[in-house]
Design a protein that fits this description.
It holds the Pfam family HGTP_anticodon. The protein is about 35% helix and about 25% strand. With about 425 residues, it is of the alpha+beta class. It folds into two domains: about 300 residues, BirA Bifunctional Protein, domain 2 (2-Layer Sandwich); about 90 residues, Anticodon-binding domain (Rossmann fold, 3-Layer(aba) Sandwich). The strands form three sheets. Strands 1-5-6-12-11-10-7-9-8 form a nine-stranded mixed β-sheet. The protein has a five-stranded mixed β-sheet with strand order 14-13-15-16-17, with helices on both faces. Strands 2-4-3 form a three-stranded antiparallel β-sheet. It starts with 12 loop residues before the first helix and ends in an 8-residue tail after the last strand.
């Protein structure tokens, strides 16, 4: 028996209904904010991802040489393809350009709870508008999506990468060393970060101060520990989010998102119900377009881990609307099958979800099957009733049954 590849999943019909329902809610909220959907290829030139994340990303993705000798990779995330699309075809669009996307991504990593080699990501980008108002709008969309899908407990943590960049630079770290240090600070690997800062020539006092700042978490009042543009920027973002009605926000200067293309505000969203692996969304302001051959353009965006978000919802007791079929058409005898096809066609043409018996069950087994697919009503086509221009309709919930003129069937739905 051939098994599915490790780190991938098959989804049953009920699972797909749950996923499509959640996906629909996310799309609805993005549209409410004026974001419009785009789609990009599942595979891209490998260079797109090495330019964005460095050559070491090759070890973490599905990269290969195709039959034409081209270096190709299955996309590990959706921001880089979206920005490549912008540089290729959308750079003349009116600003800000607001887009969202949903799709499969692939990473070669060890599968674990809520983490797969094939996974799904929902994300959004606002391109061509810099400032606290744009950052607040994007964070508000991410938070509104969580609210709209029904996640009860989620936390928003906001930082500013400029704070640590400035501290590292003024303490003597070179431009080459700063991204390597930030990567370790982002992962809270303070011992390794300290070693890298010491190797970069920072004093023990500077190292201690920088680590202390990364552990600064709390309300807007903790911004007293920092000065300059970052403080003003974060204060304004907090103010706008408060206007939007979000108060589950805290400052966390340890949110670094240690990638070199982030330029200012960074944020993460957590679902505490997931325990240690609680992050469900991350993003910030960045500039990638110049890496891909375009003009420098500031953007703010985020990515939501769809699978992990669904897992958090399920742990909170999330339930999707139950699958139902409106009508189930039953021929009492073989001579009535052709009439059942016609009745089913009329119901479907009227946009009424309809199934019918295709394998010749007995009447009792048909009722049992109709119950198993949550059919609301059974349309029973018998010879005697049909000869009088009628059918019987049974309410599958109450068990009540009545005779209805064939011309009046639609009125029953």
């Amino acid at each position: 028996m051939i098994q599915k590849p490790r780190g991938t999943r098959d989804f049953r019909s009920d699972e797909m209904e749950k996923r499509r329902y959640l996906e629909k809610l996310m799309r609805e909220e993005a549209a409410l904010f004026g974001f419009r959907e785009i789609a990009t290829p599942i595979f891209e030139n490998t260079e797109l991802f090495t330019l964005k994340s460095g050559p070491n990303v090759i070890d973490e993705i599905y990269a290969f040489t195709d039959k034409g000798g081209r270096e190709i990779a299955l996309r590990p995330e959706l921001t880089a393809p979206a920005m490549r699309f912008f540089v290729n075809e959308l750079s003349s669009e009116p600003r800000p350009l607001k887009m969202f996307y949903f799709g499969q991504c692939f990473r070669y990593e060890r599968p674990q709870s809520g983490r797969y080699r094939e996974f799904f990501q929902f994300g959004a980008e606002m391109i061509g508008s810099a400032g606290p108002q744009s950052d607040a709008e994007v964070i508000s969309l991410a938070a509104s999506i969580m609210k709209h899908i029904g996640l009860k407990d989620y936390r928003i943590r906001i930082g500013h990468i400029g704070v640590l960049r400035e501290m590292l630079s003024s303490s003597g770290a070179s431009a080459e060393n700063i991204p390597l240090i930030l990567q370790k600070l982002d992962k809270k690997e303070y011992e390794e970060a300290s070693q890298r800062m010491e190797a970069a020539g920072l004093s023990k006092d500077s190292i201690s101060t920088i680590i202390d700042v990364t552990e600064t978490v709390g309300s807007i009042d903790v911004l007293e520990k920092i000065k300059g543009d970052a403080r003003e920027h974060l204060s304004k973002v907090f103010q706008i989010l408060n206007y939007y009605g979000f108060d589950n926000v805290e400052i966390d200067l340890g949110v670094v998102r240690g990638l070199d293309y982030y330029t200012g505000l960074v944020f993460e969203m957590d679902a505490p119900v997931l325990g240690a692996e609680k992050q469900i969304c991350g993003g910030g302001s960045y500039s990638l377009t110049e890496l891909f051959g375009g003009e420098k353009t500031f953007s703010t965006g985020f990515g939501i881990g769809f699978d992990r978000t669904l897992l958090a919802l399920e742990r909170e007791g999330f339930e999707t609307p139950k699958y139902e079929i409106s009508a189930y058409v039953i021929p009492v005898s073989d001579t009535m099958k052709d009439e059942c096809y016609k009745i089913a066609a009329d119901l479907r043409l009227s946009n009424i979800p309809t199934e019918l018996d295709l394998i010749g069950r007995s009447l009792s087994k048909n009722f049992k099957y109709a119950s198993s697919i949550n059919a609301k009503k059974a349309v029973i086509v018998g010879e005697k009733e049909f000869a009088e221009g009628c059918v019987s309709i049974r309410d599958m919930l109450s068990g009540e049954q009545k005779v209805v003129k064939i011309a009046e069937i639609l009125q029953e739905f």
